[in-house]
Amino acid sequence: MIAVDFASIKTIPYAPFPQIEYQNRVEQARRLMKKCAFDALLVTSEHNLRYFVGEVSSTPHGTTRPRFLLIPSSGDVLAIVPTGVDQFYRETTWVRNCRTWPGPNPKDEGVSTLATALCDLLPEDARIGTELGAESRLGFPVGDFLRVAEAIKPRMFVDASDPIFTPLRMIKSPLEIDRIRTLCGIVSEAFNDLPAKLRPGMTEREACRVFELDCFIRGVEKTTRVQGLSGRGGVTRPYGVPTNRVLSNEDLLYIDAGFLFDFYWCDFPRKFSFGTPDPHTNDAYQIVWDATEAGIAAVKPGIQICDLWTAMSDVLHGSNSRSKVTNIGRMGHSMGLWMPELPSVQPDDKTILKPGVIINIEPSTSYTSYFDGSAKLMLHEEVVVVTEAGAELLTFRAPRTMPVVA
């Protein structure tokens, strides 16, 4: 059993975002609403509510008692929430105007209250933007959404994900970037110190729990997921729940970390070799490290994100590489209050990079096991933010050579 020195547990202080931060987000949304001829924006998903409201609830929204935020093109913002949540909003957020219903009420979980508010406050020909597009989710049941849509006719819902939610949240404010920078630093430090805490004979579960505990001690607030995989001469996939598999010489241990700090995400993995890595694993590690370096160097404001794909792909398919293309459809993404977020680092994504965009640089390659000829996967990931000058690395760069567990 690992002894915990409770005096060493860190709680990293931070100030809540000021009200002006949320007011600016609402005004930016309204400028985009005007451009798209939207009369209002209906916010329903947990991460979008946090973006606009600054809600500090530590529990995820359940399937009962949904919460809604109505942002009209002008005038006061309105929260439509279950009774009791209105008090919580008034005391902990900047939102003061609320309509409520007594919940939970499965037969009418806010449907009538929401439909009445939309009819009271918006003209009959109103176009109401909400989360209907790529990589978005409604924060209440689809059946209830269809009931509201029917009740408010001829008013209509239209997709606001692509024209409003995605471009708004893609550009992080300095305060948002500071949250992500802090978290990436904490997890990077824990990864750097992990080899000294690992030993042959541990299971994947034990290794991941040691790492997770260290991250909590250093100041992370929540674990979203810690994935751990291992195998002799490499791993076969990037996803997996850690098991009771015992780690031994010639194994590669892959840990992919997802943590939260003030509800902002970090996401990146590291690899550890038990004993000197075999030649094939070592070669793959080096080529993907070089591809990551090329991706980071390519980050500049004004370029298309597909240019990062090209920069990394050129290295992965260069004369020095003995590896093959993987079936992973992208080599990176963004993140913030959710993970992953758009844009994706893909060959057909033409998103223009701007200062404030977070990018997870994530190249991968397939290689042949030194021991049995099976297909193995090598993946690296670093987090950067686009700046006026290029890229700021938010993670601590992975070692040039793979960390070895003695």
UniProtKB/TrEMBL annotation:
Gene3D superfamilies hit by this protein: Creatinase/methionine aminopeptidase superfamily, Creatinase/prolidase N-terminal domain
Keyword Transferase on entry: no
One GO MF term: aminopeptidase activity
Matches recorded under Pfam families: Creatinase_N (PF01321), Peptidase_M24 (PF00557)
Residue stretches making up the Creatinase N-terminal domain: 25-171
Sorted UniProt keywords: Aminopeptidase, Hydrolase, Protease
Domain (Peptidase M24): residue spans on this chain: 179-388
Full protein name: Xaa-Pro aminopeptidase
Lineage, highest ranks first: Bacteria, Pseudomonadati, Pseudomonadota, Alphaproteobacteria, Hyphomicrobiales
